[in-house]
């Protein structure tokens, strides 16, 4: 079954998605990664995306839905997708249901990582991602792991959109557009809220308990 991971930017969705896919043989579908890959390819669409992201804005539903559909219709991902940070608004939620229904798929679990703005600021400001293995570490919380990172520290880079003004802009956008989706999904029996400020291992164990039910 497919899974939705919810939470504001910096809540740790990407980190937990990695644990889920390793333990439960899932595929992570991060709209952020899809967008950054398009930027990396230097397409016309990628240039438009880069401008929006750099200003702390979300791209249009039309762009996101186009990229998303390509992944959902890939048969090797069938009913084994972790939706990381999607849907972000009600229209995207409706679109996701339409696509899944069309291909006879469903959402099995909706997991919300609840984190305060103060903690999110520190997490994002210290976040570093490895260009080689895609591992995410934090200069405030993972100092030893950074020093011992097997790919080497030179591969650890900060994202262009990780600065305080953009972090706050993204958080406010999340509160305005994504929280209504959260309120909508929270009525479902398969919805679970987890304290995203807890230790990573604790959150992982909680998620495993949900998925093993």
Structural account:
This protein starts with a strand and ends with a helix. It is of the alpha/beta class and 213 residues long. The chain has a five-stranded parallel beta sheet with strand order 2-3-1-4-8, with helices on both faces. A three-stranded antiparallel beta sheet has the order 6-5-7. A hairpin with a 5-residue loop joins strand 5 (127-130) and strand 6. The protein contains ten helices and eight strands. Helices cover 49% and strands 16% of the residues.
Descriptive key words:
213 residues; alpha/beta; five-stranded parallel sheet; three-stranded antiparallel sheet; 10 helices; 49% helix; 16% strand
Structural class computed from helices and strand pairing: alpha/beta
Q: What about the largest sheet? A: 5 strands, parallel
Which bin fits the share of residues in helices? 40-55%
- Computed over alpha carbons, the radius of gyration is 17 Å
Give the rounded overall mean pLDDT.
87
Listing every helix as H and every strand as E from the N terminus to the C terminus, the arrangement reads EHEHHHEHEHEEHEHHEH
Number of helices: 10
Poorly predicted regions are: none
């Amino acid at each position: 079954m497919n899974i939705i991971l919810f939470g504001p930017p910096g809540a740790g969705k990407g980190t937990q998605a990695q644990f889920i896919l390793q333990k439960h043989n899932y595929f992570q579908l991060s709209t952020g990664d899809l967008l950054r890959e398009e930027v990396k390819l230097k397409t016309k669409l990628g240039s438009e995306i880069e401008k929006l992201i750099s200003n702390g804005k979300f791209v249009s539903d039309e762009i996101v839905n186009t990229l998303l559909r390509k992944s959902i219709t890939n048969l090797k991902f069938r009913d084994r997708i972790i939706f990381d940070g999607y849907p972000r608004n009600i229209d995207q939620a409706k679109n996701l249901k339409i696509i899944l229904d069309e291909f006879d798929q469903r959402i099995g679990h909706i997991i919300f990582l609840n984190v305060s703005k103060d903690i999110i600021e520190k997490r994002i400001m210290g976040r570093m991602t490895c260009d080689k293995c895609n591992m995410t570490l934090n200069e405030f919380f993972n100092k030893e792991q950074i020093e011992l990172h097997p790919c080497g520290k030179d591969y650890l880079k900060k994202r262009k959109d990780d600065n305080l003004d953009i972090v706050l802009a993204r958080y406010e956008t999340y509160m305005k557009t994504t929280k209504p989706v959260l309120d909508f999904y929270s009525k479902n029996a398969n919805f679970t809220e987890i304290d995203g400020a807890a230790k990573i291992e604790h959150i992982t164990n909680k998620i495993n308990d949900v998925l093993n039910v």
